[in-house]
Amino acid sequence: MTETFLLIGLGNPGREYKDNRHNIGFMLVDRLAVRLNARGMKLQSKAIVTSALYEERKLILAKPQTYMNLSGLSAQGLLNFYKIPSENMIIAHDDLDLPLGTIRIRPSGGAGGQRGMASTIERLGTQDFPRLRLGIGRPPGRMDPAAYVLQDFSRDDILIASETLDRAADAVLEFIVHGLNTAMNKFNGNSNEKA
Predict the structure, then answer these.
(1) For each of the chain's 195 residues, which pLDDT tens digit applies?
(2) What is the CATH number of domain 3-190?
């Protein structure tokens, strides 16, 4: 039987949010969907869902359409529908506390102020599920973090973000084939440190 994994990228639905820093989780789902030639897009558990096969494992890719602060509804619905253990799910989201270009994979942890993660933890009733934090850096000066995350990446930042998404996609594939510890050891940190 094929083992199934679930990647949920967090973001906000709607064209106006598409290139926001807050939507880097969605961007990762899109990157993997293209790379793996994912098929069969549908709306399920309030998420846009598609799936692909990679090294004899099934990877379900999901982008919740609930807006960030209700993302847990989709995570809970998808886990229940596909009967996937929470350790086979990884949630990808933006992180203000990590510099742009940094990814951090963790087996569990708190929400760290990320509302989509807070919603997911609340809905699942546990913090014990893998997550992939994608650094977007801190807002400049005294800018409100809520306004900062809803801005599009700058032209300079988009290149770094794109390289980071490629590494994050590699990290997800490493996770589904070789497990969480291998993915953490290989990919945690900044792209410059791994050169």
Answers:
(1) 789 999 999 999 999 999 999 999 999 999 999 999 999 999 999 999 999 999 999 999 999 999 999 999 999 999 999 999 999 999 999 999 999 999 999 999 999 889 999 999 999 999 999 999 999 999 999 999 999 999 999 998 999 999 999 999 999 999 999 999 999 999 997 765 443
(2) 3.40.50.1470
The radius of gyration of the chain from alpha carbons, rounded to an integer in Å, stands at 15
Q: Domain ranges in the chain? A: 3-190
Residue type, 48: I
188 vs 193: CA distance, rounded Å: 10
Catalytic pick from 5, 12, 22, 115?
22
93 is an active site residue? no
Residue 184 identity: M
